[in-house]
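Form 12-C: Joint structure prediction
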Amino acid sequence: MLRARGVSRSYGDEPVFRDLSIEVDAGEVVAVIGPSGVGKTTLLRTLALALEPDEGVVTLDGTDAWAVDETERLALRRRVGMVFQEASLFDGTVARNVEYGLRVRRSWSDRLASVLRLNGAADAVDESLEVVGLTDKVDQPAESLSGGEAQRVSFARALAYEPDALLLDEPTSDLDPRNTAVIEEAIGEARDRGIGVVVATHDMHQAERVADRVAVLLDDGISEIGPTEKIFESPTDERTRKFISGELVY
Amino acid sequence: MPFAATAQLGPALFDSAARPAFALLESTTGLAPALLDVSFRDGYVGSIIFVSLYVSLTAVALSTLVSVPAAVAIGLADFPGKGFVKSVVNTGMGFPSVVVGLVVLFAVSNQGPLGSLELIFTREAMIMSQFVLATPPITAISLAAVGGVDDGVRDAARVLGGTRVDVALVVVKEARYGIATAVLAGFGRAISEVGSVLIVGGNITSASGISKTRTLTTAIQLEARQGQYETAMVLGAVLVALVLTVNAIVVRFGDRGVAG
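Section 2 - Result
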């Protein structure tokens, strides 16, 4: 479904990753693990079609996202959701945040009609908030939420429009164990809905808990990618083994 | 209601509104009553308040329509020379108003490029000069407000499927307090302006004493020059009250926007 083939990306003269390939299929969770600053966020933004790779292709169901015009690329981008390390909620209620993705997909006349009707949250909004256990917060201002709640709303916001692929950038790095558990359950729910999930994390235990496959991002590329159990129990790459065992210090 | 009729009605409305304002001013300021015991011809004060607000609000409204989209476009775009463009906009905040007045006067004079429109010594010419003066501060402060919006919010709007317009709308909403401040700064610059409106407007009243192009600031300047200091002080108080009222309305409007 969502694939990156031979992608390279640099900032100025500084390469972030080179000739990197990764893919996620429907109903699969792929964890990207690696030390901080190795390029996990850049990789996810590339997969989200928010960053054009310097080289290589990113395809969604076989369509090269950077070989089509902007309108087609927008249509492709709208099939991908992303949750950032920071919740980055918009000013407004929880409902207005969660329905954002749905709202921007409507025509301008539908948006105006929606405002004039002053209707409550759509079913999709309620369902998404239910996944993260926040249906009771639907009418609260986003700024009144705790950090953990805000991140859960951010997850619901990306889930509401049923993307084909969902990209999660360190979604639980600042969360307490309870909120982390809610997010991990929500990742499972997304997989059950047939969504392909890529989660970038530096928490290897989390990768073990949620992922079907794991990609280890070290230095400027993926050192190894494979089934979770194999990566953690019998990695073939020496750098991967050292990173997982904690011998490789960055 | 046709515009011409509104323009005729305007001064009368403002004049009737000004009288209770004077009484309130007298009862609340504690200033010597003699200072406020100033007589005005019927309709005079209302007409200059009307002209001041008409010219300044129109100029600021037009400027906002240009400045805010320009600030958002510049703020969200990444292009070579962006820093230079920002510097030019910031420099514009220091435009000497009399120079702007002279340039607009040249443009609308008979020999100027807009001479055929016969705008010299009209409110429209005053709007032009105030537009030129209000645009740099509104653009520069809006630009700073847009730049202050968290990158994460912009990224989120984009990756959630927003078009460029959607992202811009999110940014404007997030930056609305800064943009409101920008508009108020522009309004402050416009309504307190003397030099350019004097040059392009001419500070004209009709034979009956009703303002054609006389504003509160040019009236104050005239009264002070004639030694009518009490009158100038009262008009100054009216000007300050007007600015305070407009600020209060904008702040109140902003608060309601958040609550909604």
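Section 3 - Comments
Chain B touches chain A through 17 residues (CB under 8 Å). The two ends of chain B are 31 Å apart (CA to CA).
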